[in-house]
Amino acid sequence: MKLSRRGFFGTAATLGGLLGLASAPSATRADAGAPPARVTTLNGRSLRPRLRDGVKEFHLVAQEIEHEFAPGMKIKAWGYNGSTPGPTIEATEGDRVRLYVTNRLPEHTTIHWHGIDLPNGMDGVGGLTQPQIKPGETYAYEFTLRQHGTHMYHPHADELVQIAMGMMGLFIIHPKDGEPERIDRDYAFILHNWAVHPGTWRPDPSVMTEFDLWSFNSKVFPAIDALLARTGERIRIRVANLSMHEHPIHLHGPAFEVTGGDGGRWPRNLWRREVTEVVGVGQIRDLEVMCREPGDWALHCHKAHHTMNAMGHGIPNPLGVDQRGVAERLARLLPEYMAMGESGMAEHAEHTAMGHMQGPANTLPMMMGQGPFGPLEMGGMFTVLKVRDELPEAGGDPGWHRHPPSTLARRVSTDPSFDPGRGE
Amino acid sequence: MKLSRRGFFGTAATLGGLLGLASAPSATRADAGAPPARVTTLNGRSLRPRLRDGVKEFHLVAQEIEHEFAPGMKIKAWGYNGSTPGPTIEATEGDRVRLYVTNRLPEHTTIHWHGIDLPNGMDGVGGLTQPQIKPGETYAYEFTLRQHGTHMYHPHADELVQIAMGMMGLFIIHPKDGEPERIDRDYAFILHNWAVHPGTWRPDPSVMTEFDLWSFNSKVFPAIDALLARTGERIRIRVANLSMHEHPIHLHGPAFEVTGGDGGRWPRNLWRREVTEVVGVGQIRDLEVMCREPGDWALHCHKAHHTMNAMGHGIPNPLGVDQRGVAERLARLLPEYMAMGESGMAEHAEHTAMGHMQGPANTLPMMMGQGPFGPLEMGGMFTVLKVRDELPEAGGDPGWHRHPPSTLARRVSTDPSFDPGRGE
Amino acid sequence: MKLSRRGFFGTAATLGGLLGLASAPSATRADAGAPPARVTTLNGRSLRPRLRDGVKEFHLVAQEIEHEFAPGMKIKAWGYNGSTPGPTIEATEGDRVRLYVTNRLPEHTTIHWHGIDLPNGMDGVGGLTQPQIKPGETYAYEFTLRQHGTHMYHPHADELVQIAMGMMGLFIIHPKDGEPERIDRDYAFILHNWAVHPGTWRPDPSVMTEFDLWSFNSKVFPAIDALLARTGERIRIRVANLSMHEHPIHLHGPAFEVTGGDGGRWPRNLWRREVTEVVGVGQIRDLEVMCREPGDWALHCHKAHHTMNAMGHGIPNPLGVDQRGVAERLARLLPEYMAMGESGMAEHAEHTAMGHMQGPANTLPMMMGQGPFGPLEMGGMFTVLKVRDELPEAGGDPGWHRHPPSTLARRVSTDPSFDPGRGE
After folding, report:
1. Residue B25 domain flag
2. Rounded-to-integer distance, Cα B91 and Cα B270, Å
3. pLDDT under 50: residue ranges of chain A
4. Which CATH number fits the domain that encloses residue C72?
5. Contact A30, A46 (CB under 8 A)
6. CB A314 within 8 A of CB C206
7. Helix, strand, or coil (residue C191)
8. Which chain A residue's Cα is nearest to C116?
9. C42 domain-assigned
10. Interatomic CA distance for residues A147 and A262, integer angstroms
C-alpha cells in the first residue's frame, strides 16, 4: 500500500496481548522521528500528522479489513487505515487541522467529528450537512480546534451498519495551557459490541441488544493490552462508548475521579469519586486515578455477561442437573456441543485452558485467560491495571505482582464445617 | 365533541413534519385570546387552563385514539384529549391547580403527577393512594405548586400497559422569580418506545426490550418537528423518558449545559457541559444551549438502532454476500421481502426515497428523510436544531442552511489511491 | 448447623412482607446483647462480628439455599449464611476486619470486596490476586478500613453464574467522625434480576437481558419490607445494583438528595436533588430524604416491566381483540393459559386477588398486592415508604395512611361526557 510505504501514518501497533506478550508504551510505536504520542491507545496507535503551511494534515482511509478479536477468532470488519478502531487523532487546542477521508468501502460514507465545535458544513452528516462520500472519493474536512478534551470520529452515513462493522476512532485534543493536575500516563479506548454468529465471519448489524462479543478497542480479553503505572503516578483513562448498551466501567483498588466527558473537561468542583462509572452510548468519560497500591487491579465492565465471550444464550440450564453421559452422547451427534456445567461454568475455564474442549469454528471460549493463580474465567471487556513500584526500563510487561505474604488472602482450613469461633 | 366546541382546550397542533411542512411556533397554536404557551411541545400543544376562583383548572380525558407516527403508519393508541402524548400542562410556582381526569378507556386508570411535591392522597397510585378511576368516571386532583421544573403525568394503574399504549404528558412549572439565565426558546418532548409488529395496528405491551419504534413525543423522523433558534439565543430542551431504555441524547455542534432534572433545577455549580446526556427511564433532563453557529444540527438518540424505524431484527445477514437474483426470486414469493444490502443498508434509503421498494402494510421504511444533500438514512429519535442568523418573521420553517463554501466539506479526489502527501 | 447454634451470626431476619406482616426495625433482629445494627437491610440482617485481639471477625459461608421470592415461589439459589443476599457487614472507618469465607458450594469461589481500598492480595479476584477457594476450603481476608461509605461483596470466580444465582451482600463502613447530616433511619438493599423459567426451580445464568423477576434484596413485591419514617426525619436509602440492567429508582413524594456512591460520600456541593436516580450495574447510590409529608409513598424502579412479575414476554397481543370463548377453549387444552386482557391487564390483578386464575406451578402472578383502595397491580421492584406523624412504639407496621378528605383525589362524576366548564 502506498500510504504505509511513504511513512505518512503511524506504524501498525504491535498487538501485544495482555497475557504473555509485552505491552509496549505508545511512544515506541510511532515512526522514528515522529513526536511521541501522548496518549496510549490500547492495542492501537496515534496517527502521525503532516504539517503543511501551518495546518496539521491527517489521512483516514475507510476500508474493509481483517480483524482479530483475540487469537482464535478473526472477522471481516470495516475500519480505517487497516484497523478497528482507526488510529487515534491527537492535536492541540488552537491547531488548524485538515482531515482527508478516502472511501474504499463498497458503499458511501462520511465522518462526523463527535463532540467537536466546528462549522456546520464540517459536521459530517451525510445528506444533511454534506453530500455522501462515494466509493473511491476523497473529501477534505478543515477546521480550527477551539476546545480540548476527548472526542470521537465515526460515520454518519448508514450509521447503524458502519458502526456495527467497526468504524470508529478517538480524536483527542490536548489543552494549550497544560493540565490542571499532572498526568503521568494517558490511556484511551472505545467500548463496542459485536454480533458474530457462531461459525460466521462478519458482524450482523441487525442485532440490537443480544450481542455476543464486548470489546475495548475491538479486542476481547485476554488480547486487550494491560495498563501500566508506577506507584505514585496519576493516570488518566479515557473511555468512549459506541456500542448499543451502557457500560459500567469498574476499577478495582483505587477510586478514580471522573473529570470530564465529550463536552470537555469539567471544573474541578464537579469531579466525582467513583469506583464504577457508567459510560453511556455515544458518551465519553475521563477517569483519573492516583495509583497508590501496587498490584494487578482488574478494570472491566461490571455487567457480568460483558466479561464473557460468546456463550450461547438460550441454551438449556443444567445447573444442578446430573449430566453424566448426556454430554458425551450429544458430543457424538454434535461435535461442537459444550454443556454448561452441572455445578457452574468454572469447569469450562479449566477445560479450555487445558485444550480439552473445542467450540464451534471461529468462536472464542466463553471464559479465557491465565493468571498467576490459575484461569481467570473472563472474556470480553476485561483487562488489568498493573501498578508497580518499578517498571522495566526497556518498556514491556512487568509480569505479575509479587504479593508480600501478609497481604495475600490465605487458606485457613479444608474442613467445610470450619468455625472461626473455635480458632483456626 | 363537546369539549373542543367549548374551546376549553388548546387546539390540536398542526402536525408539521420536519421536512417539507412548516413548524409553527407554539404561540400560534393556542386559541385566539389565550395567553401564548411558553413551552413548545414538539408536535404538540399546551392545555389552556380555565381560571375559577383563583384556581387553574385543567381537564384531561383518557381515551383511545388513532395516532400517526409519520405518514404511512397509524395505530390505535391510548392518550389524552386526542393525542399521545397528551397536551402539556403549564403553570407557575405558587399556582393552585385543579385537574379533572375523565376516563373514557375500557379499563380503570389514574394519573400520577411525577416529580411533583403534593399531599399523598393526590399522588395518583391506584389502590395505594386512591380508588381506581373506573371507565366513565371523572376524578379531581387539587394541590398547590410549591416548586418549579419539568415534570410528567402518566397513569399509575395497569401502568405497564397504559404507558406502552402512549399515555403520558409533560407538566411544566415555571419559576415565580424568573430564570437564572434568559431562555429565548423552550422546547420539550418525551422519549418513548413502541412494539408494533409488522402489519398490526396496536402496540404490544408484553415486549420488554426489543422495540421497533423509538419516538420523540410519539412521532418518528421525519415527522418530528424541527427546533428553531436564532444565533445568539439561549434555548432549553426539556427531555423526559417514559420508555424502557436509557436514551443518550446527542446534540451536534454546540455543547449544552445540563441544568436540572425532575427533582427541579440544580444550583449553577452543578451545571455540567455535555454533548451527549443519558436520560434514564422515568427521568427528565433540562438541557440549555447557547446557539452560536448557524446550521442544521442533528439532535438524536445515540443508540444507532434508535435512529432507525422497524428493521426486522433477526433477518439473515447478507453483508458481503452476492445476492444477485436472490432478492428478485424471493420477492416473487414474498412481495414484502426486502433484503438487507450486500454492501450495507444505505441503498435502501435511496430505493425508499425513489419509491422502488415497499415494506409490509402499515410499516415505515427503516431509513427515511430527505436533506439538502440527499437521503438522510435516519428514522426514529432524530430531528434537527435549525440555527439561523434570521428566522422568517411570519414563523414557519426557514428551509435548509446555506453553507459558505469555505466551511463545507469538499471533494478533493475520485481516485481511490489518493495520497495527500503528493498534494491534491 | 453449628454456626447458628453458637450464636455467632445475627439471627435470620423475620421475613415480614410489606402487606400484612410487621416490618420490625433492625435493632430488634440482632441477638440479645449485640449492639444494634445501624443499617436496616430490607428483608435481611447485619452480621454480628466477634472481636478478637482488636480485630472484628466475620464469617461468611457460601452455600446453596432455598429462597422464597414471595409466598408462592421458591427456588434453589446460592447465597451466604442461609440467605440471598448474604448478611450485611457493618464496620467503622479505622476498624481492622478479618473475614473468613467458607465454600460449601459445588464449585470454587472467592469474594471481591467491591469498592474497598485494600491491598491487592485481598481483592478476591480468583486466578489474578489469589487461588480459587475450592469446595470445602476456608480462606481469611484481613485489612484495615481506610474509608467510609456503602460497598458490596460478591464472588469474582465464575462470576456470571454465581451472581446470577444470588451471591451478593452489602458492606457498609460508618464514618468515624459522624455524619454531615443527622440520619434518623438508614435502609439498604441490592437490585437484582432473575431468569426462572416457568415451572423451573433454578435461575438460568445464560439469560443476558430478558429476565422475568426483578428484586430488592432478592424479594419481589409484595414480599419486600416497607420503609418506615416519622415526619421530620431524614432517612438514607442505600441502593446497590448487581443485576444486568440500569435501574432508575423513583421515590414518590419528597425529592431526595444523591449524596454518594461506591467511591464514597461526595462533598456537599455535589449533592443533587432528584426524584429518579439511575443506579448503574455494579454501582451504588446513597439517597437521603427529608420526610415532610405523611403518607404511603411508592418507591420503585421506573422501568414498567421491572415492577411486574413474570409475564410471558412474547405472548400474542390481544389488546382490542374480542376474546370471548378463546381463553376458555385454550384453557381446556392448556390449563396454565392466561390471556392478556382485551382491555388491558388490570383485570388480572383483580382475578388474582380473588383467586380466580392460576398461573404455572412455582410462578407468581404478574401483578400482586392489595392496598387500602384495592389491588396495586404491581410486582418486582416495588415497595412503600410509610411516613407517619407517629409510629407504633413497639415497632411493627403502622398500617395504611389515613388521608384527610381534603387531600384525597375525589370522584366528581360518573358521566363520561362530564365537562368541568359546566360545573361539577
Report:
1. yes
2. 25
3. 1-36, 313-314, 330-331, 333-338, 353-356
4. 2.60.40.420
5. yes
6. yes
7. strand
8. A253
9. yes
10. 11
**Domain ends where: C178, C212, C234?**
C178
Cell of B221: 423522523
**In a 10 Å sphere around its CB, with 0-12 CB exposed, 13-18 middle and 19+ buried, how is residue B105 labelled?**
buried
- Chain A CB contacts of C127 under 8 Å are 369-377
Nearest CA in chain A to C102: A416
CA of B17 to nearest chain C CA: how many angstroms apart? 29
**Same domain, residue pair A168 and A26:** yes
pLDDT digits (tens, 9 = 90+) for A290-344: 999 999 999 999 999 999 987 654 455 666 666 555 555 544 544 444 455 677 7
Interface test with B, best of C251, C273, C414 (most B CBs within 10 A): C273
CB count, 10 Å around CB of A181? 14
> Cβ contacts of residue A147 below 8 Å, gap of 6+?
A93, A116, A117, A173, A264
Domain boundary among the residues B157, B178, B199 is at: B178
DSSP secondary structure string for all residues of B289-319:
EE--S-EEEEEEESSGGGGS----TT----T
Q: Which residues of A touch C48 (CB under 8 A)?
A: none
In A, which residues are within 8 Å of B372 by CB distance? 127-128
Nearest CA in chain C to B1: C417
CA-wise closest residue to B118 among B151, B139, B142: B142
CA quadruple B307, B310, B311, B312: dihedral positive or negative? Answer: positive
Q: Which of C3, C121, C282 sits opposite A403 (nearest CB)?
A: C121
CA distances from C387 to C253, C295, C399 (A): 10, 5, 11
Chain A residue with Cα closest to C128: A371
Q: Which of B111, B129, B241, B285 should be substituted to probe chain C, the one whose Cβ sees the most C Cβ atoms within 10 Å?
A: B129
Instruction: Domain count for chain A, please give it.
Output: 2
C344/B130 CB distance under 8 A: no
Cβ neighbours of C390 (radius 10 Å): 9
Domain for residue A376, yes or no? no
Residue A19: CB atoms within 10 Å: 18
User: Mapping DSSP to helix (H, G, I), strand (E, B) and coil, where does residue B204 land?
Assistant: coil
CA distance C77 to chain B (A): 25
Query: Chains contacting A with at least 3 CB pairs below 8 Å?
Result: B, C
Choose among B11, B358, B46: nearest CA to B187. B46
Half-sphere exposure of A201 (CA within 13 A, CB side): 9
Distance from CA of A293 to the nearest CA of B (A): 31
Taking contacts as CB-CB distances below 8 angstroms, the residues of chain A near B365 are none
| CB-CB contact of A412 with C139 (8 Å) | yes
Q: What are the tens digits of pLDDT across the range A30-64? A: 343 344 469 999 999 999 999 999 999 999 999 99
> pLDDT tens for residues B54-111?
999 999 999 999 999 999 899 999 999 999 999 999 999 999 999 999 999 999 999 9
* Contact check, Cβ <8 Å, C132/A417: no
Chain C residues in contact with A311 (beta carbon < 8 A): 206
Q: Measured in Å, how far apart are chain A's first and last C-alpha atoms?
A: 67
Determine the Cα–Cα distance for residues B345 and A108; give it in Å rounded to an integer: 10
Question: Which residues of chain C have a CB within 8 Å of the CB of B103?
Answer: 416
pTM: 0.89
Residues A346, C167: Cα–Cα separation, whole Å:
15
Amino acid (one-letter) located at B133: I
Asked if A300 contacts A216 with a C-beta cutoff of 8 angstroms, the reply is no
ipTM of the complex: 0.87
> Which residue stretches of C283-392 are H helix?
326-333, 346-353
- Identify whether C282 is part of a domain: no
Full domain range(s) for residue B62: 2-178
- Whether residue A295 and residue C200 make contact (CB cut-off 8 A), yes or no, is no
Cα(B229)–Cα(B10) distance, integer angstroms: 24
